[in-house]
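in:
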């Protein structure tokens, strides 16, 4: 772009949102130039911070006229470098679009601006006696718009579904600045194409989400949690189906940790202790219900029946909130792995539940055979067919072979008919492998949709589709 054109562009953007909200050069914070792991860093042409959906539309109208690429940015907690701008991009921050617009307790909906942190929206729902059901570790920083753009998952998907299942309606700004407003509050609405689905999970490549109507649920009145050890994966699946059957729709988490995870977390992370003594696959199981006394009895009966079947080697029920938190702290040790194990590759894949156990066995063998100095961990939201894998190579064994580890993991995912992304999206990191999980016809349709909605290819250029 010629210098005078850049000056005109910045002048126009400044007029639209005010000089205080168009930052350039050193004024741009590092966080807006990089991803969560700081693996990709580029200083954009400018960081623009509109304060209203109307200003977002004005920014897009200007950028469209100039053919100027734009990278939408939410809370910057994404794990696939989807919000990292290229050097000539405008980074468009949604952070000032922050606020709850309405809670409708009769319709059980919350209308929110896209830049609102997830935790703020959760707190507002709770204050109204309702539940915004999706929850993830980044809740304090990630934004509702980012959650929608990535179709975030988290720990309660088995009960409430992904973020997609919480979005009843939304408003989005298209690449040319057109505002598409569909703030629907109804669970049923089959009036033509379901346009909100174009924006959910499209990682800022088809439009910028500015507002959303989210579905709320009744607040649970009870929570029961246990940590169990099981001998093998087939028994884990039997236990999962038993829990789903006997807990009548109240099962809210079913987290599985393979022995490699349990060993690493309990021996190398200070302050973490296992609630059980047995070896095997570890399961953190939780139910949330509506009546404390009845729910506790139902939960204990479910565990007793599993013990009688010989499925559990050991089990510990959390007797207090503190104990429940200590169980979850052990499961959430995952956030320590990349720090303690750098360099580290983390994977977020999904497989049919029926083949997930065989997949882990084969992957562990392949990793050990191909990278004799590697260490690995396997864990995941198995009830949602989601597996996370972490791989580290012990120091002193040459350059970290990230590309070869990617090829090994994704090659096996492809053979098992799995997905290279269960919940984090594709962004920059995974686009080279998208064809492992999508057919050529699916990819062609994605390109057709992208071209129809963004013919100048200015929205999050180069992300998702290679
Ligand atoms: C500690 C930690 C725990 C996590 N746990 C989970 C988990 O359990 N489950 C899970 O799914 N993810 C998890 N994540 C990943 C991350 O939090 C989610 O992907 C989150 O939804 C991203 O939201 P964000 O606002 O930070 O988006 P960003 O990182 O800013 O952006 C993510 C993508 O969305 C686009 N985008 C952002 N806002 C908008 C908008 N308003 N309109 C259009 N496009 C937009 C960006 O361009 C980018 O492509 C975790 C991350 C961390 C750091």
């Amino acid at each position: 772009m010629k210098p005078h054109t850049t000056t005109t562009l910045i002048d126009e953007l400044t007029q639209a949102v005010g000089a205080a909200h168009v930052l350039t050069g050193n004024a741009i914070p590092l966080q807006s130039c990089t991803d969560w792991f700081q693996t990709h860093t580029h200083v954009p042409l400018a960081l623009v911070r509109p304060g209203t959906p109307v200003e977002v539309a004005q920014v897009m109208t200007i950028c469209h006229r100039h053919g100027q690429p734009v990278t939408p940015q939410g809370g910057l907690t994404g794990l696939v470098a989807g919000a990292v701008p290229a050097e000539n991009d405008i980074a468009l921050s949604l952070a000032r679009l922050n606020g709850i617009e309405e809670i409708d307790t009769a319709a059980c909906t919350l209308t929110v601006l896209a830049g609102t942190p997830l935790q703020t929206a959760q707190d507002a729902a709770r204050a109204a006696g309702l539940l915004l059901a999706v929850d993830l570790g980044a809740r304090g920083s990630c934004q509702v718009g980012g959650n929608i753009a990535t179709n975030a998952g988290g720990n309660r998907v088995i009960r409430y579904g992904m973020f997609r299942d919480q979005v009843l309606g939304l408003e989005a700004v298209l690449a040319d600045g057109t505002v598409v407003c569909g703030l629907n509050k109804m669970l049923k609405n089959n009036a033509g194409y379901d346009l909100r689905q174009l924006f959910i999970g499209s990682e800022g490549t088809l439009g910028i989400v500015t507002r959303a109507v989210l579905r709320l649920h009744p607040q649970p009145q009870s929570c029961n949690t246990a940590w169990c050890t099981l001998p093998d994966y087939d028994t884990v699946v039997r236990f999962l189906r038993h829990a789903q059957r006997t807990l009548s729709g109240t099962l809210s988490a079913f987290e599985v940790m393979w022995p490699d995870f349990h060993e690493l977390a309990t021996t190398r992370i200070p302050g973490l202790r296992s609630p059980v003594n047995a070896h095997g696959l570890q399961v953190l199981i939780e139910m949330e219900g509506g009546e404390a006394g009845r729910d506790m009895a139902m939960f204990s009966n479910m565990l007793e029946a599993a013990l009688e079947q010989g499925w559990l080697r050991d089990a510990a029920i959390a007797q207090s909130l503190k104990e429940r938190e200590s169980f979850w702290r052990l499961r959430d040790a995952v956030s320590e792995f990349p720090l303690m194990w750098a360099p580290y590759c983390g994977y977020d894949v999904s497989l049919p539940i029926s083949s997930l156990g065989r997949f882990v066995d084969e992957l562990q063998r392949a990793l050990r055979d191909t990278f004799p100095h590697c260490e690995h961990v396997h864990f995941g939201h198995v009830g949602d067919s989601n597996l996370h894998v972490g791989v580290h190579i012990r120091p002193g064994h040459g350059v970290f072979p990230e590309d070869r580890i990617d090829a090994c993991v994704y090659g096996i995912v492809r053979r098992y008919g799995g997905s290279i992304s269960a919940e984090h999206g594709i962004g920059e990191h995974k686009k080279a492998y998208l064809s492992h999980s999508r057919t050529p016809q699916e990819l062609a349709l994605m390109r057709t949709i992208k071209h129809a909605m963004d013919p100048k290819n200015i929205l999050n250029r180069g992300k998702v589709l290679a």
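note: Residues 341-441 form a domain with the Alpha-Beta Plaits fold (CATH 3.30.70.2740).
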